[in-house]
Amino acid sequence: MVNEFDSKAREWDKNQIHIERSEAIARAFLKAIPLKRKLKALEFGAGTGLLSFLLKDKFSGIVLMDNSAEMINVIRGKIKGQNIRHMKPVLINLEHEDYAGEFEIIYNQMVFHHVDDIETILRKFHNMLVPGGFLVIADLYHEDGSFHGEGFTGHKGFDVDWLSGCIRDAGFTNISHQQCYAIKKTSETGQVKEYPVFLITASR
Length: 204
Fold this sequence. Notes:
- The model has no long low-confidence stretch (mean pLDDT 92).
- The protein is of the alpha/beta class and 204 residues long.
- A seven-stranded mixed beta sheet has the order 3-2-1-4-5-7-6.
- It has a single domain, classed as 3-Layer(aba) Sandwich (Rossmann fold), CATH 3.40.50.
- The N and C termini lie far apart (34 Å).
């Protein structure tokens, strides 16, 4: 089945907004989670791996998970081109499949608003993390639906207190959040609108 992101994969890294957003999230990530040693990591909904490639020297191993075959193909090409040994792309839909693996940190950016069953994914993350492991989620604050426009069936961003409650219900502790970026988009009428992005961190 063709994934909605398959057609976007080849051009994804050419969008300066995607790059700037990933860089801002990476900076906030490293401030929020001081990495005193190299951890085993999972990026959920990795896309082309922009965030993981920025963070790759911080981890001993990274599984880059996505349900778009073309996004995974882009990651494979980047890994091969840079001769990287410790990054592993995995094509899987974690909402509907299970993955056997243990990680010390799980992170994602701009993925959760596409996830149908937030509670199930959070429970899976909790099960895949070792005790003392970290969860990092970057996504949109609640917005009016104009970010994606008509026809989008996912979440219109999130109320961070509600999402923090879901994270707590899944068994996580030490939950905190902050704004880490604002995406600027120009509408068809030429108006520029900002969509703030949060970073939530939690402990297993």
